[in-house]
Amino acid sequence: MGKVRSQIDEGLAKFIQDQHVFFVSTAPVDPNGHLNLSPKGLDSFRILGPTTVAYLDLVGSGVETIAHLKENGRIILMFCAFSGPPTVVRLHGMGRVVEPCEAEFDELVSRFPQYESTRAIVVVEVTRVSNSCGYGVPLMQYEGDRNHSFAWAKKKGPEGLAVYKREKNRQSIDGLPGLSE
Fold this sequence. Notes:
The chain contains 4 helices and 8 strands, in the order βαββββαββαβα. Strand 4 (45-49) and strand 5 form a beta hairpin. By secondary structure, it is an alpha+beta fold. Helices cover 24% and strands 32% of the residues. The radius of gyration is 16 Å and the shape is globular.
């Protein structure tokens, strides 16, 4: 049933691009630290090459993924088919965080829609691609994206977002360094 690949082929790329939600998981080195699992949506994911992907990291209440990547780089992304044939795809790899203050940011962010709440871009060098049946994943219908994040960011405004990031995104819940700015 399952299959392991070394890169994202054309068929998997189409499957991944058709999904409306994906999940990101990271963990700190400390076995007593908190694991992180986050759902992601919107038009925030790009396949940059057969072994490289990237997604927009939007302002949120925590900064666990960023902190874990800065500490050890380990990451897994999971895509599930909630409609159509049952499929689950996992992308294992090493991730890095590209913040707005870095030279590479402008070129990468140009590949995505402009969101006021973008705080970083996560780039993943994929080391293992696997897919499995997904028989246990329920069938569900996509109704649309939520606009709460956009409304919240607009209400905060650029200065309010900057303050929020300084207050909430400087370190993880385990005290690991988060955003630089």
